[in-house]
Amino acid sequence: MSRQYETVIGLEVHVELATQTKIFCGCSTKFGGAPNTHTCPVCTGMPGSLPVLNKQVVEYAMAVGLATNCTITKNCKFDRKNYFYPDNPQNYQISQLYYPICRNGGIEIDVNGNKKVIGIHEIHMEEDAGKLIHDEWEDCSLVDFNRSGVPLIEIVSEPDMRSADEVIAYLDKLRLIIQYLGASDCKLQEGSMRADVNLSVREVGAQEFGTRTEMKNLNSFKAIARAIEGERRRQIELIEEGKKVIQETRRWDDNKEYSYAMRSKEDAQDYRYFPEPDLVPIIISDEWIERVRKAQPELRDEKRLRYKEEFDIPEYDADILTSSKHMADLFEETVAICKKPKEVSNWLMVEAMRLLKETEKEPEDMDFAPENLAKLIELVGDSKINRTVAKEVFELIFKEDIDPEEYVKEKGLMMVNDDGQLRSVIEAVIEANPQSVSDYKNGKEKALGFLVGQTMKEMKGKANPGKINEILRELL
Amino acid sequence: MSILRLTAVELGKKIKDKEISVREACEAVIKQIEAEEKELNCYVTVLDKEAILKKADEIQAKIDSGELTGPLAGVPFAVKDNMCTKNVLTTCSSKILGNFVPTYDAQAVINLEAAGAIVIGKTNMDEFAMGSTTETSAYGVTKNPWNIEHVPGGSSGGSAAAVASGECIAALGSDTGGSIRQPSSFCGVTGLKPTYGTISRYGLIAYGSSLDQIGPIAKDVTDCATILEAIASYDPKDSTSVKRDSYDFTSELTGDVKGMKIGIPRDYLSEGLDSEVKEAVLGAAKALEEKGAIVEEFDLSLVEYAIPAYYIIASAEASSNLARFDGVKYGYRTKEYEGLHNMYKKSRSEGFGPEVKRRIMLGSFVLSSGYYDAYYMKALRTKALIKKAFDKAFEKYDVILSPAAPTTAPKLGNSLSDPIKMYLGDIYTISVNLAGLPGISVPCGSDSKKLPIGVQFISNCFDEKSILNAALAYEKTRDITYSDVLVKGDK
């Protein structure tokens, strides 16, 4: 390839908000539930039903807007987006086109030390649709409206990203901000965070943007990275072959690592947006904005700084600990009980991260009680168990949330600190290993390690290695 | 005097005084329905006789025990078929909702029943309230009780005809561009459209959401005020519902107009107004002047823009509001189809009538990209200017007086072939909806064909008191009021 290309990427990110009830009615937003059990006349589009806005949705949207440096639209309105599809009970979606709640923001990302601000064009509120279930057996389609009316915000970025790394950094930052705000759990796999990628390529130095495509069905960071690479390649190939990129929506198939055209701009629908007459404008006062701003919890960047200062934790560790709101919460709650930040950090940084990797889980999935980790740390601190036992116990806490005190007692894993018993075992070990004893006496330090190991074996791992060392040296 | 000739308030009082039982009241109305309905076709659904009488006994018991003391307790009512009624078919006079039985009541119906009124049936209307004659109903035309060769008006034609013929004592209608006031005028009854936001729209099947408002159709002004008081409420389920300072519409009902300033828009008295209607309306103005009101003509302006603005806004909203009728969840679904798109297309093509299709197409067009600014946005701006013109008028006048319609009821079959002409018939009522104002139509005589004429009173938002008093004052000047309402077989 002789020509150099630049990739231009903008994202549309949908985030499901963590409200208890739906955006326009009192139905539960709980995931699961038998089909059509979390429904009412409003979210099933029954004739004569009317929407009533959930105030919490506005506050979450404002919170996200403030945390991403947006301007809040003080007189914001809802609009109807008209299109026919059976998962959309009214055949229009209540969304925002003309006066979205947040505009003109941006967040700073950091890719390998290169800092850059990604602009946010707007954030708007809207309702989710229901779910279609295709019954192959009966050859029919059914619709479940449990998701219908679950509140969403759509965060539309400027076309400011130039690589998959920047996209991932942006998404990760956005996810953390929203998680920290408590506005959503932002799980890509479960669909509570969804990203559509708008991508075009152009020759380096070109002023105009190329023709873009929009890619859907991306449900992990890895899929997003692969889709960006795949689409970039496809567009460059088209241009190199002298063909044109068509403005269209494409669906990414992560198994085949290829995207398929869904619909082109020509057959794009005319949504016939117009102001939603069933809802009144939302007037947002300065006082309301201030109230939301004041209620903002500590965000990731502040937390990271505080960990360094308050707990004297290295930057790298603070980075990992705060990389998930859930992990940071777990860290702080455990520290509050045992007052040993460094110990807690070590367990999370080393053992927890190892187990997460092994079990292919996300930090959000750690569901053990901070009390149990605190107890484990105390058991180690009081020399009641040694490190090897502690690692085993931690794994059980991680996997089954066991109470370490009870477990250690039950299994008889307490360290033996009784000098008399230990002394007699060591005497027996010395007796049985004259070669090692003489090696040690001849200056081979290694031999001592062997004797410690033998003693530990006899003690079934329940002895304090420091103590063994001490007594061995004394006896030898 | 026959039960059927009583107003709702008079009947309510006689029930309270034990002169008439609730059962007797209901039986009288049922008997009248049995006699007249075949010819007039006021109803889409009349409730089962036994169910009505059972309800009558229940209400009677509550009145006897003192649980129900309101003025409407025990009074038989009809409700327009675009208001949802729990477990009772609600069709909007459309084939597409031919099997729709709601699981909930409209808030206005809940309020009405809480007052002890008995809903006996659902009245015929123009399909989805789109029309001025009740001829677009999928369930046959309703005939004007004064002359069955004429239409009752619309879209609340069934409610107005039922009140006029004694097939109910009073009724609820809905008004998007005159659909209460115009049929009231054609049928010689009194109909009130309150200020937008006064009566909850929850459960009212929407036509033009920003214009729709429920209101009473009854024999006289006192009934309208009393029914309004019963059904108006702030409803958190309707975001456009307004929390009003007071829901008392009756205690200041004096009929005193001494010093009241009444304006007549000169623009309303020109071209297109039938001379007999004009004469009757000006006669009403004269009568009020004699009672001490100060009446003068003025220029309202912008009148010619109201109809195009209305048909753009109402059709745009309707095109979206009616999208939910798709054969997927409820209502009519075509018998045979191939795939989703074909199912949508056939269900809607077969389920909607021509006037509804016309407005859906018109509405879809004006919202299309590229046309939105030229039509919809311009219509919204026009709406705002019309509101301003009224604001200016109300700086000077307490009440505006006008005809309710330019003519009396046309003959059946003469209107639908020329929709533009039909739309022009809404000229005096439409601006009131665009500006969100309250308006009332009161009978003011009849033309040479013995068809009723209505005079309309309009006041500023939230000032129902002024139009109710002006209307009542006028009503009092007439020798005969509600008793000139036709009740066949009871003359």
Textual characterization of the structure:
The complex is a heterodimer of chains A (476) and B (491). With 476 residues, chain A is of the alpha+beta class. Chain A contains 15 helices and 16 strands. Chain A has helices at 55-67, 164-181, 221-240, 286-294, 300-311, 315-321, 325-338, 341-359, 370-381, 387-400, 404-411, 419-432, 434-441, 445-458, 465-475; strands spanning 5-16, 71-72, 75-76, 79-82, 92-95, 102-111, 114-127, 131-135, 140-144, 151-157, 193-203, 213-216, 248-253, 258-264, 274-275, 282-283. A 9-stranded mixed beta sheet of chain A has the order 2-6-7-10-1-11-12-13-14. Chain A has a 3-stranded antiparallel beta sheet with strand order 5-4-15, with no helix packed on it. A two-stranded antiparallel ribbon of chain A has the order 3-16. In chain A, strand 8 and strand 9 (140-144) form a beta hairpin. The longest helix of chain A is centred in the middle third of the chain and has 20 residues, at 221-240. Chain A is elongated and about 90 Å long. Chain B is an alpha/beta fold. In chain B, 39% of the residues lie in helices and 13% in strands. Chain B is built from 15 helices and 11 strands. Chain B has helices at 8-16, 22-40, 49-64, 107-114, 157-165, 181-187, 221-231, 275-290, 303-321, 339-351, 354-367, 373-396, 419-424, 427-434, 464-477, and strands spanning 43-46, 76-80, 118-123, 170-175, 190-193, 213-218, 261-265, 294-298, 399-403, 439-446, 452-459. An 11-stranded mixed beta sheet of chain B has the order 1-3-2-4-6-5-10-11-9-7-8, sandwiched between helices. The chains are: A alpha+beta (476), B alpha/beta (491). Chain A binds chain B through residues 41, 44-53, 80, 82, 84, 86, 89-92, 141, 143, 270, 272-274, 277-280, and chain B through 83-84, 90, 92, 97, 100, 102-104, 106, 201-206, 208-210, 236-240, 316-317, 319-320, 323-326, 328-330, 340, 344, 364, 367-369, 372, 376.
